[in-house]
Every structure is written in C-alpha cells, then in structure tokens.
Write a structure and sequence with these properties.
The structure holds two protein chains of two kinds. By secondary structure, chain A is an alpha+beta fold. Chain A is 32% helix and 16% strand. Chain B has 14 helices and two strands; from the N terminus they run αααββααααααααααα. Chain B starts with a helix and ends in a 7-residue tail after the last helix. The chains are: A alpha+beta, B mainly alpha.
C-alpha cells in the first residue's frame, strides 16, 4: 500500500507541476497575446468580419450585399459612385466618359478607357492580364442575360435592350435542356463599335441604364477566365479592380490583396461640406488602393465579432440589438466606455424599405382591400422600432425611403397609424367582424419568413400578436432563404416579410417593386397590378427629376397607400462604430468597391491593441494560488489519513 | 394450495409496483412526471373567453392554462419587455414580447406531452409489429426487417429528422411523424430479441402442442410478456423525444414559431444571454422545465427497469 501511495503522490505532483508549468508557458513571452492574426510583416492590413461566406464571386450572381461587397473590390464596372460627393453622383470607372445619349434617348454610346488590364492570372496567355476592351462588356452583359449562369440581376436589363430579350429567352430554353449559348452570336442592340467603343440600342428610353452599368452585375469579366475555370469560376475571380483574391478558406477567412497591375486611380479631392473638417481630404491625390491587404474573418455569430471589435481586432462594427445598450446611451450617443476608447459613431439612414407584402393574387388577402387596410392598422410599428431596432429606424409610410427623390417627409399613411379600434372596425367592414368570416370560421393567415434566426422569428411572433389583437389567427411558416425565394417566385405565399435595399439612387428602383409587368419572378413580389399605377410608372421612369416627376410620384404613392398591397414597415438607420485608427471612412448607401479609399494608422492600432489586451496576470496568479492551495491541502490530507491496510 | 399462498403470488405488475413504491426517489420522480402530465392535459381543456364588450364582443376559445394565467398573472403587456424574475406579477420574468416566462414554461408541457404521446403512438406499434414479426417468423421476413432497420440506424438520427422535416414542412404533427418513423428501431431490436427467446419457451411450445394458432400465440402468450419492455422504452424514450424537439427547434426545423415549446424558448433566448445586461431567465426557464422532466423520466425509467427485472427480485 505504501508503495502505491507513493506512486500516486508522485503522479499528483507531476500533474500539478505540469499544470503550473503549462500555465506559465502559456503566458510566457512568446504566446503573451490574444491576437488572432498572423504577423502582417510591414504591410498595411485592414481587418474586417463577414457574417458568412460570399455565395460565390461571380459578378452575375452577386445579388446579395455581402457577395456584392466583395465582388466590387475585385471587379470594376463602367461607372462608379463618387466616394465623397452627396447626393450620390456617378463618375466614369472603366468608361472614359459619361455615356453619349442620342436625342431620342434610345442609343447610348460609351467610350471605354484604354490601357486598363485585367489582373495577372494563369487563364491568360503567359499569365499576364490583357487589356480590357469594349468586347468584354458585350460578353459580360450577355453572361448576365444567360440563365445558364444562374444570374441574379437579369431583371436589370430585361425588356430594355434591342434583341437582348430574345437572347435571354433562348438561354432559358437552353439552360433547361443543359445546352450552352453561342456567345459569338451578335445582338442587335449591344455592340462593340470598335476596340474601345460600346453601344447600346434601347427598346425604350431608360435613363437608369447608367446606374445599371455601375452595378457589379455588369462588371467586365474576361472570357478567358470563365472558360479556363469553368464551374469553378465562382471561386477564381479575375477582374480589373483594386484588389485581387489572395486566399479564401470557407468558413474561416477571405483575404484580398492589392492588385499590382491596378490602373492609375487617385483619391478624390472634392466632396461635400464637412468632409475637410472630418479629415477626409488628407489622402487627396494619393494612389489607390491605400492598404495592402483586407483580411476578412468569417464570423457567423454576432457575439464573437463584437468581442473582437472591442479588443481592437476588427476596425469597425455594426451594433446588434442585443449589444446596443452596451454601446449607445438612451440619448443615442456613445457610452463612456466607447468614448474613452476613441471609437467614432456614424449614423446614417440606409436607403432601404422593409415591408409586409400581401400576395395580391391570393383569394383572401388579395381580393379584400379593407382586410389589408385593417391588418395595416393593427401593425404596431413603433413597438418594433423600439424593441427590435433599438429606436434605429423610422416608421415607413410608403415605398420610398428618406434621402431619395420623391420621399415625402410629411406623408401620413392613414392605414399605417397603429389603431386597434379602427382596425377592428375596418376588419368588420371587410366581412370579418371579430376576425370571424361569413362561414363562421376564424380567419387564418399564413405568414412566411425567410430565416429561422431568432430575430426573424421574434418579428413573426410580433406580427402574429398584432393580428391576434383584432382576432386574426396567424400561422407562421419558417423557410430557408432559398425556399422562401422559390415560394415568392412561384407566387405561393400569402403574407410575407421582405425588404429592398436600393441599387441606384432613383425612386424608380423602389416603385418598380409595385409595377405590374414586374410581377414574380420579377421584383414585384406582392404581384400588385394596378393599370393606373403602371401607366404613371411608365411615364415617370423616363423623366428627369423635377416638379413634374415629383407630382407623378406623389400620385403613385397615393394609389399604393390606398390599395395597401404592402404594410410599409420601417426604414432603418445604420449605426456604425469605427476605431480611431481607421482613416477616410465615409458611410455610403450604395454597395461598391470603397475599401480602396480606406486607410489605417498601423502604429496607433498596434499601441492601442497592446494597451487594451494586456495579459491578466492577476487572474493567473489567482489560479496558481488555488492550485497550490489544493496541492497543500491534498498533501496535508494524505499525511493525516490513517495508513490502514492489511 | 392454501389461500395465503395464493395471495402471496402477485402478478409481475403488482410486484413491480410494490418494489417501486419502496424506492422513494422513484416515487418523487413519478409525482413530478404526474404533475407535468396533469399540466399538459390542462392545456387541452377548452375554455370560452369573451373579448370586448357590447356588440363588438367576440368569444374566443382558449385552454385552461391560458385561462389560469389570465386570471392569476393578467394579460400580456407588450411594454413589459424583459422584466427580470421576481418583479411584480412575473415570477420568472418576461421575454421580449412581455410574455410571462413561467407561462411559456407551463405551455411547453402541453407541447412535450403531445410530442411524446403522438410519437409513441407511432413508434411503439411500429417497433412492436416489426419486432414480433421478425422475431417470431424469422427467415426471410426477419432478414428483410433487420436489413431495413440496420439501414435506418446507419443514418445519423438528427440528419434523418432534418431531412424528413424539410420534406414534410414544420409543425407539431409533422415533427411527431418524423420522430415516430425514425425512433422505432431501438424498440424493434429489443422486441425482436425478446420474441426470439420467448417463442422457444415452454409455455409457447405447450400452446403450440395444444393446437393454438400463430395469432393466438403472439397475442395471448408473447405480447403480454413484452409489455414491460415497451413501458421502459417509452419512459426512457420520452425524454429523448423532448430533447430532440429542443435540438431541432434550436436549429430552426422543429415546431412552428408560434407553438410554445421549450426548444423554441431556448432557441429564441440564445442571443439574449449575451445581451448587456444579460437576459438569462428566458433561457433558464425553458432549460429548467426541460431538465426537471428529463431527469425525472430517466430516474423513474431506471427504477422501473429494476422493478420489472425478475432477476433483481429479492425478498
């Protein structure tokens, strides 16, 4: 027995020694940091987080803001938004100048910048990127309209360019049969007149074409890369943009690095009042991009990203509703903790509208205007803004968000004023007194959401609660985003919640969501079709901003308010936090390649990170103390215990 | 044989009950389970509730749990968001919608009872039928059934459930159906083994010798001797079913969002814990209700197994 006890004691000592030694080693000089990144070796690196992996980096598929945000750093389009000027203004990017438009508004001629090269890539002969020509845009736009590529942005040019719809229709047939399109086939309205001149012939005036040519959907894609990489092209972007893809490990990280052959692009020296005071001109004239690398870590949950931001390992962060009170005071300013750290807060209204859509082809809600109005009256927007958005939103009254031409700040949608009594009254007028229909049964509505996330489900429960107040029973159906999209396309939904983030700064982009010919599978997901609205839309879309256009937009909004195909919910206000070492950051409502302007003070960042992440020796000492005390107690206990045994 | 002797020869069930009664922990667990069951059944008792006054008044059907909470705690106030426990009328606090957490925990019992009951109603007959058929007839039928359940058992349970739920859509009934058709394998194996043993027993041989048909042998001689397995499997399986619901609802493929269940409570509350100040009571309410039932079921199931095991009969 004595022998076994001695062995046990020795073992115990070894374990304790290992534990202590390990702990000391763990905080030794080599590993004395919680820095999650490898050393940058003199490079200027920007650290950011992505909520998930992009859904591929093919420009024609970059329909969501996350994928679009990465694609726009790698690919360039013909036009881009001025970084600093407000209201948003387009300027040439790969185009040499703004488009020359014929008098009838039907022919757009666009000169393409000379000497711009695609990034070097094995897909090109000799591995050296070749020059971009007008033919590349013809090819890229054909790709956008080829269903074989599963494009997300075909709606942009559908019905707009002569001959392009025929190409699109053929691609639908061929994609179904698994056959490829012949890209050599000419399209009447889409031509490269010479090496550097592109021409569009339109079926009708479409003044939003220039905006469409800014979006990543129409970015220049080299045919060589598409053919070389085949189906894997989504993982091998080859563009002309300021950055190129260095490394992408799914569910871990996506690293962009400076494109060494990027054209001569300079930081702007013009902007809006206040930009100079904000230090936004300090880099004026500097060659872009300013940083060498952008290191994106893919972090699915909000909590770890928030902690990394607070430790200084992410340059900026949004604020999830559950962290709001930690960062923002009830007066909507930064809390002391964040002020002390020198964090800056930018608030800016996002050009977005969230709404509850009624499927106008549904026999119950689609055919009953009074019912829709009653549901709209029972919808408690203020509660949502307070509890789901921490007050970071304004109640939407119509489809157009603030900051957009046509937005009427004084518009008060009579069916968007939360009033349960009026809602009950209207519901009775709709034929459902107390929520009970003529057949004596309680009205049941199916409400679909496109995510199983707690926030989406909470919002659905709030909808069910609001409708329950007036006696309508709601069945909530949770879908994956793909299922949800499929159901909207097939017009199988009854009532559902969606949002629209603007693509270009023209109210047409929001009003087209209600234009009859745009019904699903188009962006008009509520399948609203009002001839008067459609007529006004066609008239309005080709007009320049002015009082006449404003008057037409007002009439259109009035029609929508009365018909209530939507319950306009909220327009959100974005709150962005940034550390003080981030330079040249200006909020931009449009998705685009703005990381090229961003700067970072590496030394300041290094110093503050070190300051904020000092190893906590105190807790370590406490752990060591506890371990030692345990060892001593055990030793005493062992000695005191009776020897016993046979 | 004298009368006293006859009185002493108790049936298997009476003997098991006598032994169970001696196990104090098992009896406490049984009381807990009964309480849950009673609460669950209260959720099925309809009550007519008048809303509003005068001509606009409507009659709404609610259940007894709703009614009790309406009387004791009062209606949900949407402005009472995230009220901490032991504040005012809310014993366990409220969630973001101002709903009482205790109310949700109690409502969750009904969902659990429906889940357990319906799922058992599907998987027990399936397991019994296939188990007895395979065990009794053997040969090709046995091969076929063993092949089917071995194949099913190869697919991880949760994945199979997710696949089934994606096809059938969300809902309590769908969930019961999915769990029912995936959870009969374990029971089937046990029943098959036991039947293999029983069909060779003397009394079955005797029954066969006096000319009893297959159906009679199975129904009168084998089936009654399998019931203890079914009861143990049901008791222990019930907790597994309730846990599976929680797991599936957590990943968003369980019951509908409007159905109150412990799984949806835990799932909805997972981000609230990291709030500052933390909202822990919503998660704790759902988890505690789940934990107590699962623990009680497991302890009771173990005790029941011991009580029904003839080898452990000690006088």
């Amino acid at each position: 027995m004595e022998g076994r006890r001695a062995v046990r004691k020795l073992l115990l000592c070894k374990v304790l020694a290992l534990g202590l030694g390990g702990s000391v080693l763990a905080v030794g000089p080599a590993g004395c940091s919680n820095d999650p990144y490898p050393p940058a070796e003199g490079k200027k690196v920007l650290y950011a987080a992505l909520g998930e992996d992009p859904h591929g980096l093919d420009p024609v598929q970059a329909g969501d803001t996350l994928s679009g945000g990465i694609v726009a750093q790698i690919y360039d389009s013909l036009y881009e938004y001025h970084y600093l000027k407000r209201p948003y203004e387009l300027k040439p990017c790969l185009a040499a100048s703004m488009p020359q438009v014929s008098d009838d508004g039907l022919t757009y001629t666009i000169p393409v910048k000379q000497g711009v090269r695609f990034q070097d890539d094995p897909c090109f002969a000799g591995g050296t990127g070749r020059e971009v020509t007008a033919e590349d845009f013809v090819y890229s736009i054909k790709r956008l309209m080829d269903m074989g590529n599963e494009p997300r942005g075909s709606w942009l040019l559908k019905g707009k360019v002569v001959g392009l719809d025929a190409w699109y229709d053929e691609s639908v047939e061929r994609a179904a049969a698994g056959r490829k399109m012949d890209y050599g086939r000419p399209i009447e309205g889409l031509n490269a007149l010479d090496r550097y001149t592109l021409q569009f012939k339109l079926t009708e005036p479409f003044q939003q074409l220039k905006y469409a040519l800014e979006m990543s959907y129409t970015a220049a894609v080299p045919r060589e890369a598409v053919e070389y990489y085949g189906e894997d092209f989504v993982n091998h972007p080859v563009g002309t943009g300021p950055f190129r893809l260095k490394e992408w490990r799914k569910r871990w990280k996506l690293i962009l690095e400076r494109n060494p052959t990027y054209r001569d692009d300079r930081y702007p020296s013009e902007g809006e009042p206040g930009d100079a005071e904000a230090g936004l001109f300090e880099a004026a004239g500097m060659r872009l991009p300013i940083v060498d690398e952008v290191h994106n870590t893919i972090i699915g949950e909000a909590q770890p990203a928030w902690i990394l931001f607070k430790q200084g390992y992410l340059e900026g962060s949004g604020i999830s509703k559950d962290h709001f009170e930690e960062a923002i005071t009830p007066e909507k300013e930064l809390t002391q903790e964040f002020m002390r750290k020198g964090v800056s807060l930018t608030k800016f209204p996002e050009m977005v509208v969230y709404y509850v859509a009624f499927n106008m082809e549904d026999p119950v809600v689609g055919a009953n205007k009074a019912l829709r109005q009653a549901m709209s009256l029972a919808y408690d927007t203020e509660w949502r803004i307070e509890h789901f958005a921490n007050g970071r939103a304004i109640s939407a009254q119509g489809p157009i968000p603030p900051g957009m031409f046509g937005y009427a700040p004084d518009l008060r949608n009579p069916y968007k004023q939360y009033d349960v009594e009026r809602a009950r009254q209207r519901l009775a007028e709709a034929g459902y007194p107390g929520g009970v229909g003529p057949d004596g049964k309680r009205l049941e509505i199916t409400y679909d959401i496109g995510s199983a996330e707690p926030a989406a489900r909470q919002s659905a429960l709030a909808f069910a609660r609001d409708m329950g107040e007036i006696g309508i029973q709601v069945k909530v159906v949770t879908n994956t985003w793909a299922e949800f999209l499929k159901k909207t396309i097939d017009r199988r939904l009854q009532v559902f919640s969606v949002g629209w983030i603007l693509d270009y700064p023209d109210p047409e982009n929001f009003l087209q969501l209600l234009y009859g010919p745009n019904k699903a599978p188009g962006p008009n997901r509520s399948n609203y079709d009002n001839p008067e609205f459609n007529r006004l839309f066609e008239q309005m879309k080709a007009m320049e901003d002015g009082p006449e256009r404003l008057a037409i937009i007002k009439r259109m909004v009035d029609i929508v308010v009365e018909d209530a195909p939507w319950i306009p919910s909220i327009h959100t206000v974005s709150y962005i936090l940034r550390h003080r070492w981030v330079g040249n950051a200006k909020a931009h409502a449009m998705t685009g390649g703005y990381l090229k302007y961003r700067d970072v003070d590496v030394e300041l960042r290094q110093r503050l990170r070190r300051e904020w992440n000092r190893p906590n020796y105190w807790s370590l000492t406490a752990i060591l103390g506890v371990l030692l005390a345990m060892a001593m107690i055990l030793a005493v206990f062992r000695r005191a215990a009776p020897t016993g045994g046979p | 044989m004298n009368q006293d002797r006859i009185r002493e020869a108790r049936s298997l069930w009476a003997e098991a009950w006598r032994r169970l009664r001696r196990n104090r922990l098992a009896m406490v667990c049984l009381a807990v389970i009964s309480l849950y069951l009673a609460l669950g059944l209260l959720g099925f008792v309809p009550v007519r509730q008048r809303q509003g006054a005068g001509e606009a008044a409507t009659v709404r059907r609610i259940d007894l749990v709703d009614w009790a909470f309406l009387k004791l705690v009062g209606p949900t106030d949407r402005e009472e968001s995230y009220v901490p426990p032991l504040t005012g009328r809310h014993l366990l606090g409220t969630d973001i919608m101002g709903t009482d957490v205790l109310y949700k925990a109690v409502k969750g019992v009904r969902t659990a009872v429906v889940l357990g009951g319906l799922t058992a109603a599907i998987y027990i007959p399936l397991g019994l039928l296939f188990g007895i058929v395979a065990g009794y007839f053997g040969g090709l039928v046995d091969d076929l059934i063993v092949y089917v359940y071995s194949t099913l058992a190869c697919v991880p349970g949760i994945l199979l459930l997710i696949a089934l739920m994606s096809v059938m859509g969300k809902g309590l009934v769908q969930l019961c159906l999915a769990m029912g058709v995936t959870s009969w394998v374990g029971l089937c194996r046990l029943i098959r083994g036991e039947t293999l043993k029983l069909r060779e027993s003397d009394y079955v041989l005797a029954a066969r010798a006096v000319g009893a048909g297959r159906a009679r042998i199975i129904l009168r001689h084998i089936l009654p001797n399998l019931f203890h397995i079914v009861i143990i499997s049901f008791t222990l399986g019930f907790s597994g079913i309730v846990l599976s619901e929680a797991v599936l609802s957590y990943i968003g493929v369980g019951v509908e969002a409007t159905t109150i269940s412990w799984g949806t409570m835990i799932s909805m509350a997972r981000m609230e814990v990291s709030r500052d100040p933390s909202v822990w009571w919503h998660l704790a309410g759902g988890a505690a209700a789940l934990f107590v039932l699962v623990l009680a079921l497991n302890v009771f199931g173990d005790a029941l197994r011991d009580a029904l095991d003839p080898r452990l009969r000690v006088e």
